[in-house]
Design goal:
Largest sheet: 14 strands, antiparallel
Protein name: Lipoprotein
Radius of gyration: 23 Å
Order of helices and strands: HHEEEEEEEEEEEEEE
Organism: Flavobacterium columnare
Strand content: over 45%
Number of domains: 1
Structural class: alpha+beta
């Protein structure tokens, strides 16, 4: 009888230990997804788009990204832009372009504030069929979120399912470290592709429409990895400061954590974030 009771007690203890370990593992690897948590991810992803917009606009002014600029400049007018060396250039020469937003900051048309410097570098190759551009940051922040790291843009000409006509295609590689206002550090890696899908054959820039596809991952301080994938192409119009359409799905441990829907094509600063079956309105600007 004592042996039987001992075995029962041992089994109960063993079951309790398994249960505790299971609970601890679930708490460790599947923390609750909250609206605030996802809002931070959304805002981080939004500044990545702002960076792309400014850099592509500056490349357009160097004739490396023709027709990528919108009718109204996205680069704040208070930013100081410098190029080294000055034209004329020779093939194979390295060119550096610096956009300095100052220490007090400059505001974009969408209300987001940029501080510090973005430094763009590329090799001048006028006859090349593709161009590779890198840009880095110096004391740079977006709405007081510090940004460090390197991004690479590869520009090629080609066709795609979205646009059967030959056009410029921009592949953007992400390798960024982001420090939030609360001190938390996030690491972002991935790839996005941006291309024109409408307005290519008209003289006006205002009718240009672009789509963005891609995926990336964000590593949080706890080690949690969140994957983001554009499951419906993001649509950007030259005459609008915001993404007007498209869906980003966020997953963790192969489970959908949240979905961000940018709407039906209207130009506004709102998107719908769905977390745990609940819908929230997210404002895309500052």
């Amino acid at each position: 009888m004592r042996t039987k009771n001992f075995i029962i007690a041992l089994c109960s203890t063993f079951a309790l230990l398994i249960s505790c370990n299971k609970d601890e593992n679930e708490n460790l690897y599947t923390p609750e997804i909250t609206k605030d948590d996802m809002s931070a991810s959304v805002k981080t992803d939004a500044f990545v788009e702002d960076l792309s917009t400014v850099v592509l606009e500056q490349l357009g002014e160097l004739n490396l990204a023709a027709r990528m600029m919108s009718t109204e400049r996205q680069t704040p007018s208070c930013a100081v832009v410098s190029i080294n060396p000055q034209a004329p250039y020779t093939s194979g020469q390295t060119i550096s372009k610096t956009i300095d937003f100052g220490s007090t900051g400059c505001s974009m048309p969408n209300g987001n504030t940029l501080k510090g410097k973005i430094i763009i570098k590329f090799t001048y190759q006028p006859k090349a069929t593709s161009h590779t551009i890198t840009y880095t940051f110096e004391n740079f922040s977006h709405n007081n979120v510090k940004v460090e790291g390197t991004r690479t843009i590869t520009i090629t000409r080609g066709t795609s399912a979205a646009n059967p006509n030959e056009h410029l295609i921009f592949k953007i590689d992400l390798n960024l470290t982001v420090t939030l206002e609360n001190g938390k550090i996030l690491k972002i890696t991935g790839t996005k592709t941006r291309e024109i899908i409408q307005g290519q054959n008209t003289p006006e820039l205002s009718d240009n429409v672009y789509q963005i596809t891609g995926n990336w991952e964000t590593v949080f301080p706890s080690g949690t990895v969140r994957l983001a994938e554009i499951t419906s192409p993001l649509i950007v119009k030259s005459n609008c400061f915001y993404i007007t359409k498209g869906i980003i799905s966020y997953t963790k441990l192969d489970k959908t954590a949240a979905v961000l829907d940018f709407g039906n094509g209207e130009c506004d600063d709102k998107a719908t974030l769905t977390v745990n079956g609940q819908n929230y309105i997210i404002f895309l600007g500052k």
